[in-house]
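In this section we walk through a basic example: taking a raw amino acid sequence and producing a predicted 3D structure, encoded as discrete structure tokens. The instruction is simple. Fold the sequence below.
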Amino acid sequence: MELAELRQAIEASDAEWVPGETSLSPYEIDPEAMELLGYVPGPEEPSLDEQEAMAQAGLETFALGAPGYPPAHDWRDAGGDFVTPIRDQARCGSCVAFGSCATVEGTLRVQEQDAGLEVDLSEAQLFYCIARAQGRRCSGQQTGGWWPSAALDAFREEGVADEACYPYQAGDQDCTDLRSDWRSRLTTIAGWQEIDAQPEMRAWLSERGPLVGTMKVYEDFARYYRGGVYKYVAGNFGGGHCICLVGYDDPAGCWIGKNSWGTDWGEEGFFRIAYGECAIDSTMWAVEGASSQGTG
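The resulting token sequence is shown next.
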């Protein structure tokens, strides 16, 4: 799909988001390769198509209820920026590690009411050590990618060290670069929970911090999203993706997401997506009781 074709398709639709060249425009979006993506439904989770139907059904149900939360909230502008900087997973299906680390980092800042808290967790340890031990890899039809419940279980049961213990580089690795003192530098969580109702997602976001989310990614979003409230318009299906939700906006009808594709994509690495779109709100995962041993 070329950019000119997409612009014509957007003009002919009810979508209002802004397309343009991004750092990912040259990429071919291949669901088998999983590059840039990497969410696959876990053993007990619905398929991506089923999740998409659930999100649409949830949107219809929500429209009948009365909200019990503020009309909008964004942790980037909540008396300080409680969201850690944008990362870049590059050409590896490690998005679950990035979405999970971003959510725990943001939860720590909110929990401590300290927007300047220095926290940068090692996606490399989470994916190349813990997920790898479970047989997960950057790509592959049977072994590529991961799912949020497994990543959050790892935070609860094992802990994840800071970035300096194992700096991230894209590409399958065997955990040999992990610093010897990593056990004294762990961040853990007391627990996590799934949230399936959209009003409860907004309530958690407005009060307690970011959420882990997943979505279906299509070619128009990955290659050409520059800003605005995204709705799928055209292009091939690319695969499942894990991101961090940092806010919502009821007047605009959208979630606010933190992606892991660098700052030259989207709204300086962030994006907005319409409620019920691309399975974004079929389920989200909330982090409870984060604690950190600090860095050495």
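Looking at the output, two observations stand out. The radius of gyration is 18 Å. The chain has a mean pLDDT of 94. In the next section we compare this with other chains.
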